[in-house]
């Protein structure tokens, strides 16, 4: 469990899955810098990590704002002198109303979704790449979604933004692989965490179980974190340019 010993990981986006990611990265020995637009949420996670003996720092980060992203990268470099991993995990999911398809969804919601999810991942990537290129090493992980390729009657803006993130990942893997930078995407389907459990009707969770090959449970942040830790570690050093579906077989992609 020390595959990430001394690695510095900037994790953008706390929340349900982000909490699991931060905890796992720290358990494996990484120094975690956790940024979120909700700084209190990030701080709470960091306090928990510190209480269990891990190393982590919280900061305010608006992943869709260039200045804020650059400041987070500068703060990470100031504290640790390097960045081994970037995990872009935050998202806006404002178009989940099943009554709203392309004809009904307000254009402002579409624009805001692309601004945060697609442009935000682009900004975070741009901000860390020069450091990783100079180091000759780095691993970038993006949290995407099965929505990027599954089709659906809702979530049109979100699905498009997640597909954009996958295109970004392929670009980074191809262009900066020779410089030692790897880029990969994790695509979860339904992943239950406390905030979701509070709002989702049990029937929704049963539906997610029914849709997957694994029926005994739904996905949890720990499942995403296990894959992320591999991708951040040297054990994952020959994996790049991939979309890793951690979804219990909800969508079986060739
Ligand atoms: N939970 C699921 O079922 C599921 C399924 C597929 C994909 N995903 C993806 O997993 C990731 C995490 O999802 P989650 O369920 O943990 O969501 P969540 O809402 O619990 O966490 C998202 C976090 O992102 C933060 N955030 C939002 N905008 C931000 C910004 N501009 N800058 C910085 N932080 C910002 C929020 O404050 C929040 O802490 C997302 O990318 C999501 O699309 C989740």
Give a short summary of the structure.
With 254 residues, the protein is an alpha/beta fold.
What hetero molecules are bound to the protein chains? nicotinamide-adenine-dinucleotide
Count of individual helical segments: 9
**Hey, roughly how much beta strand do the residues contain?**
15-25%
Query: Which fold name corresponds to the CATH topology?
Result: Rossmann fold
Which H/E pattern describes the elements? EHEHEHEHEHHEHHHE
Second rung of CATH, namely the architecture: 3-Layer(aba) Sandwich
**Arithmetic mean pLDDT:** 97
Domain unit count: 1
Topology, number of strands? 7
* CATH superfamily caption: NAD(P)-binding Rossmann-like Domain
Describe the protein in words.
By secondary structure, this protein is an alpha/beta fold. It has one domain (8-246): Rossmann fold. Helix content is 48%, strand content 15%. It has a 7-stranded parallel sheet, with helices on both faces. Helix 1 (15-27) crosses helix 9 (221-232) and helix 3 packs parallel to helix 4 (107-135). The protein is globular, with a radius of gyration of 17 Å. The model has no long low-confidence stretch (mean pLDDT 97). Residues 12-18, 36-38, 41, 61-64, 89-92, 116, 120, 143, 145, 188, 190-191, 195-196 line the site of nicotinamide-adenine-dinucleotide.
């Amino acid at each position: 469990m020390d595959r990430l010993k001394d690695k510095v990981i900037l994790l953008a986006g706390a929340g349900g899955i982000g909490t699991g990611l931060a905890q796992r990265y720290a358990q494996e020995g990484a120094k975690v810098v956790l940024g979120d637009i909700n700084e209190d949420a990030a701080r709470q996670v960091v306090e928990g990590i510190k209480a269990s003996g891990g190393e982590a720092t919280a900061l305010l980060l608006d992943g869709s704002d260039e200045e804020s992203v650059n400041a987070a990268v500068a703060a990470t470099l100031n504290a640790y002198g390097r960045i081994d991993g970037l995990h872009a995990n935050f998202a806006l999911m404002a178009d989940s109303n099943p009554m709203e398809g392309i004809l009904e969804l307000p254009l402002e919601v579409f624009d805001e979704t692309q601004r945060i999810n697609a442009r935000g991942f682009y900004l975070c990537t741009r901000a860390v790449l020069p450091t990783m290129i100079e180091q000759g090493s780095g691993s970038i992980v993006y949290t995407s979604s099965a929505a990027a390729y599954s089709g659906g009657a809702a979530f049109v803006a979100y699905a498009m933004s997640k597909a954009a993130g996958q295109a970004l990942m392929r670009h980074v893997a191809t262009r900066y692989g020779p410089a030692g930078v790897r880029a990969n995407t994790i695509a979860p389907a339904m992943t239950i965490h406390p905030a979701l459990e509070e709002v989702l009707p049990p029937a929704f969770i049963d539906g997610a179980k029914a849709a997957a090959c694994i029926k005994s449970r739904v996905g949890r942040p720990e499942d995403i974190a296990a894959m992320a830790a591999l991708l951040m570690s040297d054990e994952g050093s020959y994996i790049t340019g991939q979309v890793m579906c951690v979804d219990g077989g909800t969508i079986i992609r060739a």
